[in-house]
């Protein structure tokens, strides 16, 4: 169950990162509220996953899901650039996540 909590926590991180961008420095009410609600949910699920998973593993996976997810959302919805170097960087993050998962017993 810890891995499921961690995966959902990572997805929620993507949502709050996107809504934070949309809040324009917390000057727009609705995206600001969405940011804090999803941030709370993400942290809560991360903390539940840490009951079982090692700190380093949980934190790396959580931030990795958020980083790669925010990268994809930025390209898809915000028109951010898609260069070979950025794709390579995202691929390296994903490979690190896979290695971290494979090296963690649980």
TrEMBL record:
<feature type="transmembrane region" description="Helical">
    <location>
        <begin position="33"/>
        <end position="50"/>
    </location>
</feature>
<keyword id="KW-0812">Transmembrane</keyword>
<keyword id="KW-0813">Transport</keyword>
<dbReference type="InterPro" id="IPR037185">
    <property type="entry name" value="EmrE-like"/>
</dbReference>
<dbReference type="GO" id="GO:0005886">
    <property type="term" value="C:plasma membrane"/>
</dbReference>
<comment type="similarity">
    <text>Belongs to the drug/metabolite transporter (DMT) superfamily. Small multidrug resistance (SMR) (TC 2.A.7.1) family. Gdx/SugE subfamily.</text>
</comment>
<dbReference type="GO" id="GO:0022857">
    <property type="term" value="F:transmembrane transporter activity"/>
</dbReference>
<protein>
    <recommendedName>
        <fullName>Guanidinium exporter</fullName>
    </recommendedName>
</protein>
<keyword id="KW-1003">Cell membrane</keyword>
<feature type="transmembrane region" description="Helical">
    <location>
        <begin position="57"/>
        <end position="79"/>
    </location>
</feature>
<keyword id="KW-0472">Membrane</keyword>
<keyword id="KW-1133">Transmembrane helix</keyword>
<dbReference type="GO" id="GO:1990961">
    <property type="term" value="P:xenobiotic detoxification by transmembrane export across the plasma membrane"/>
</dbReference>
<feature type="transmembrane region" description="Helical">
    <location>
        <begin position="85"/>
        <end position="102"/>
    </location>
</feature>
<dbReference type="Pfam" id="PF00893">
    <property type="entry name" value="Multi_Drug_Res"/>
</dbReference>
<dbReference type="InterPro" id="IPR000390">
    <property type="entry name" value="Small_drug/metabolite_transptr"/>
</dbReference>
<dbReference type="InterPro" id="IPR045324">
    <property type="entry name" value="Small_multidrug_res"/>
</dbReference>
């Amino acid at each position: 169950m810890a891995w499921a909590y961690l995966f959902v926590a990572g997805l929620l991180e993507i949502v709050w990162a996107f809504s934070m961008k949309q809040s324009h420095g917390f000057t727009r009410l609705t995206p600001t509220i969405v940011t804090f609600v999803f941030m709370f949910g993400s942290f809560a699920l991360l903390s539940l996953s840490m009951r079982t998973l090692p700190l380093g593993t949980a934190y790396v996976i959580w931030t990795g899901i958020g980083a790669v997810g925010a990268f994809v959302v930025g390209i898809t919805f915000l028109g951010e650039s898609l260069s070979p170097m950025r794709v390579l960087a995202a691929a390296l993050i994903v490979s690190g996540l896979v290695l971290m998962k494979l090296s963690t017993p649980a």
